[in-house]
Structures are given as C-alpha cells and as structure tokens.
Amino acid sequence: MSLFVRTMSIPIFSLLVCGGASAAITSADLMVLMDESGSMSGEQNWIKGAITSLDSDLMAVGVTGNRLASVGFSVGRGPGRTRIFDVGGVGAPFGTAAEFQSLSYSTSGGTEDGWAAINVANSLAFRSGNIGRNYILVTDEDRDNALAGLTYDSVLASMTSTNTLLNAIVNANFSCGGVAALGIDSKGNGYTANGAGGYGVCAGATVRNGAGTTVANYVDLALATGGAAWNLNLLRAGGATADSFTAAFTAIKVQEIVAQPTAGVPEPSTWIMSSCTLAAFAFSRRRRRA
Fold first, then answer.
1. Which of 18, 27, 28, 92 is most buried, judged by most C-beta within 10 A?
2. CA-closest candidate to residue 66, choices 25, 27, 108
C-alpha cells in the first residue's frame, strides 16, 4: 500500500474499503536485542527514544497495550554471553514503553552473538492471539559464535514458526538507483533520506555490502522473516540524516506490525484491516503536523 495514502481522508477511505473493520493486530510484543560492547552507547540511548515514538504511533492506529522486553548480548552470564532485562520489574521481562526507558545497558562487552540473543529471546513467554511479535536487533559487528549449535536455518525456523519479524540495524550498506538507502524491506523497497529529516521510498533497492558476515548473519535473516534491515552508519551520521533514519524506521515498523499475519486471521481481511489502520496512522500524523 502506498505511503501517500495520507492524501485521502479517513471518512472517504472507510466508505470505500474499511467498512468499520478493526485492526487484525490488537497489540504487540516488541523485543530489543542490544549489543552491549564498547561502541554502542549512542544506539543504546537512541533506541529508548525510538521505542517511545514507535509505541505512540502504534497506539495512534489502535495497537495498544504493547509490551517491551530486551536481551543484551556480549556481557551476560546466560547462553552465549546474554542477559534478559527485567523491564517490568524483578522477574518480569516484559514492561511498558515507559518502563523500558529505565534500562541500563553496558558497554563493556567484546564478544557479540546476535543469534544467541535471538535464541534466548525465543524462550520468553510471548502472548498468543492477534499479537504482533517483533524483534529489533542492534549491533555494529557481525556475529561472533558464542553459542555453538546454532545455524542460519535453525534460527530462521525459530522465527518463522512463531510469526516473528526481525529488523536488523547493522553495519551494512543499501542503495536505490545509486543513492545510499537508510534501509531495505523484504519486498525490495528502499528508504532514503530527503535532507530535511523525512524520507522517500524507492523500489528495487539492493544490499550492497556489510562488515564481515553481517549480510549473511543478519541482513538475510531479517529479510527472510519479512522484516527489514537498516544501515547503522546512517543513524550515526547524526543531524537530518539520523532524523530521517528514525522517521523511516518507526513508520515502517508500524506498517509491518499492523500487516503482520497471525494464526486464524484470513489473509484478505488482514489486508483490508491493515490498510484501514495504516490510513488512520497517516491521517493522524498529518493532523499532528497541521
């Protein structure tokens, strides 16, 4: 569906398509998988603001009661040097977006295994039903094998079998028609900075390269789950480019979540309800800018 649906008013759109239908996804369980090595302090601070914006935008389209959790990797004592944070309090991995702000990540690690973090995250108790299940992995390194026995196929299967979408914010480069792209989704759409803190959308985006095995370990995995991959270096560029990165990332996450399939939801109704929800989101953002 086009991002430019904001040019159509919600009442007209509802008469044409929605028919009063509600979103297929009613709430989301969001998992942040964070690299805790020495170069990641900027991204650790950034993710908190991004989560606040994402939760707000989800609520604007009727996806409410969202839960946040986080697994850190490279300093913990869990499998593959991981640790589960108690976002909602002692013994409570899931909490609210507001509670997520109190997380205190470390930057003392040196062995980063994002697959190990995914493996540990899979062990948590996620909600069933019409609940979006999404992972956001953030690292500037390729995978260090800190948890033996994991393979690309086994990690991918663990995610596709649970309808889990992965977004990977990593050290990789993407392009659209020769222009550097902020990120790329599983359909080949790319997102580019417009120089003013916003973003554009282009078709036929490609993966150019990545540090070490980053593309094979993380970019390919994210796209295979139906998620997206993002260029961490453009976030680190700061200024308007970083603003564009955040705007694109949060907007695309909202689109992914409201369109995410869940067990027992027919595909046609999912598309229609997701379309209505996205239209409401676009209309809400337009009203806020007015």
1. 28
2. 27
